[in-house]
Protein 1
Amino acid sequence: MVIFIGLSFSVDEVSTTAIDRKAGLIDEGSVPITRAREVDEGVLEVPHAEWVRAGCLAMQDIYFRIPVKLRKLWGIGLAGPSGWIALDPDLDPISPLRLTPRMSFVDDFVRWLEANPKQRSHIFQVLSPKDYFRFRVSGGLATDVTDASLSGLLDLDRRYWDDERLEEREVLASWLPPAFDSGAATGRISQDGVNMTGVPGGIWFVAGAESSASREIAAHDPRRGGLYVLLDGDWCELRVSVPAGVSSERTPPGWRRLNSALTDWHVLSRPRRVRSDGGGPDREQVRAAIEDAARELATADIQVTRVVLDGAAALPEWAPGVTSLPVEAGRFAGKRDRGPALLAGLAKRVFRDADDLYRKLRDAPTDQNGDDQPDGLEAS
């Protein structure tokens, strides 16, 4: 049975899922990332060796959790927060690995260049944190369109780096890797990767997605419309999907237009800080964020008729009554992100297209305590 693994990097852990060709969960796990420290408001640094160590250990852990008779691993999808690391011509780091989960990495990168002007001539490549891990275990220099679009430097329609925007920010196109569709294969694990992870050779790495884009894949079908609200600590990200052909002039002030992990759609995104009551986001703050978002989108003739409320932690009890609009929970709310593994399945074409993927997700159990049996694995 062909299986797919997803690795989701965050500021404090690497979480993993393994799924089968029907989108059923086989197993999951996590490995902590230590020594992350906040160096500026909204910016954290993690030692690059620690980032790679945690990712390799997470790969090894999830692979060996899979029963031997099911270990026919085809590919691995990656997700991670916005951020960056600069490499020299020998492809060694010349900067810290910096995480910027609530902002474009370019703003922080440009500030770092201004503070370290002598390093500019030594830069050969700039990679996002998840893409740095890809490079270390596969040798591939690549990114995906969701991560790239967050930079503000990508032509969203052509999916190429935009020369005019690059020149405006004084960023060289040669520093940036090619941007692939989220479900594209970007190379196989290298011998160094085999040595570091203990995973056998021949495994594909898939482009993957930025963290919030990845989580939305499994939460709901964005083509059905509706406002998607991802709760994460004292932040919520509000997202709505629109067909790629819809004019960018319909993007209301304060919202960003991004590429979707589903290649024929765009996303309007607006991160917003909300007060936390100690047990998660405050109800009234979330209500205000949703109602404000609905009004802002209405000015661009985008009507919100339903809300999908998703959380990296379990949803609060008050979630269904948070607004007068119909509210539903994300498909796997409170559970680990299956998005990267689903993208690996898209790359292999076991999910023929988005319609097939969401049909199989609708049929996949959400219970991870015994009922979510993968294809070919009988319950004991």
Protein 2
Amino acid sequence: MKKLYTILLAVIFIYACEHKIITPINTPVSDCDTTTVTYAVQVKKLMDASCTSCHSVGKSVPYIPLSDYASVKQQTQGKLIKCIKQQPNFNAMPQGASKLSNCQIRTIEKWQELNYPQ
């Protein structure tokens, strides 16, 4: 009987080793490509979709423009990143709307890191 258990365990062990399923580490696939970020292709579209309805001429008080390249570049050098990340002691932006996605925030940060390509 002992010999039968030994053989059975050996068969199970060999079977398990031969049929081992390798499961990849669950890393989410990201659609957030920030390899190349320019104002014209990504940043302007993001600003138009999330910011310029309030941050264009005559809309916000105090007026903080976000409707053109120079304005967005200037604001990015200041508080903009902290506001869109909704960090403590900064006005959470976009105000009255959902927080920008991590990808959108990363896109703006990458644009800044790349030295603001147009």
Protein 3
Amino acid sequence: MTTMETKRGIIHQPSLSSNSPLSVLEKEEHLTLTPYLQDGFPISLLNLEYPSNTKCILPHQHTRIEIIIIDEGLLSISTDEKQFVAQAGDIVIINSGAIHEGETKNISVKYRVIMFELSFFAIVQQIRDILEPIQKYSLVFVNLIQDAFVLELCNKIFLAATVQSESSLLLVTGLTYQLLHELVSTYTYFPKNLSREASAFSQILDFISENYRNNITTSFISKTFGYNEAYFCRVFKKNTGLSFSTYIRDLRLQKAKKLLKKTQYSISYIASEVGYPNSTYFTKCFRKCYGVPPVEYRQNLESKFKSNK
């Protein structure tokens, strides 16, 4: 199989409302949600499998912690300025706010993912004090580890999630607390050089993710964050690989796809909800990006769901 062509650009995923890792492969058979842990529960577990020579994780970032367990094969991962290859038995930890991407080389890969927001665990002030440096990126996790005990904890979390009862959520949460304790106490360090520009830019992406529905412009954001507009456009392209308008479009359409998949809202409502007051223009943009209009995209999803029953 040849490498699949993709548009290179970083997508910012700000919260648990969009838990799935970004994948270039639209076909859902490459992603299997672990039973019972559904939308709304603040810990997500995924099983994924990709063939060789595939860009399986598009460049993106999010506030949550992402733990990748390699079960078979190899996965080449880039995160911030580091690049490494993880193999079976390795555990990869993606820090909050870190831009990351991944691809297979000449061998396929099977891996599992555990994702959670640190804010979910900060239920009392003492725990908030412990986790705040990680949330602010002044304390970071080691990216690649091999630890039999940590691997055992990850396996127990996935096993607990297969039990379809409400009480199993308590077990999953407790085990994830234990996993977080082990990682924080053993695999964190203070980075020597924190990029102020990267930190400031992350705040801009946070702002965009919260306001993408509105008619925000480079002029408005430049003034809000104290940039010269021309300089901001250059910095934005340098950090994301996309122009500002393309980034906003892709973010809106990603949100629209999620609504098409998980709701029965009308096309005009979804268009308005993601920042397109004109549903005709929304349909045109959606078709140009994904090859089909939103109505047909939803119909294809429904047909696939019925055929799988």
Protein 4
Amino acid sequence: MVPIVLWSTVLAFTRGLGESLGIFRAGTFILLVGGSLSCAILFFSYGFLTPFRTHKPLYWFVCGTLFISYQALLYIAIGTCDNRSQLIEVGLINYLWIGFTLLFSVPILKKKAKPFLLIFGILLGFSGAMLAILSRSTAEFFSTSAVFENIAGNPIPYL
């Protein structure tokens, strides 16, 4: 339950901290605190270097590069949002990576999956995110024009 609450508040927390510290300083602070806590837990649970010896250094380099790139692009997107509505839309688009992970993990890991269930699950996830993006708390429901106005007004966070 705690991870879900923390994960759901990360965009608002980052935006709020970014407004006072600057978006990259806030991102650095968040990742530094999270990384320090993770390293402390890792050290006291397993001994610090034991889990790192299970993979080759190239694995850690590639994964670290991808993680840093993802975080930098996410903080750029958060920092360039013009308003809170746009921040919520960008945050929901950000969570579409889960569907792409499912989609690409099957051929990369050479696992067997039932195509119907895989496609149905991915479409269900994407449609849930789109439903959340397109719905508004006002009388408008499925206001695609508001979303397209936000994208046209400031396309950088969406990219």
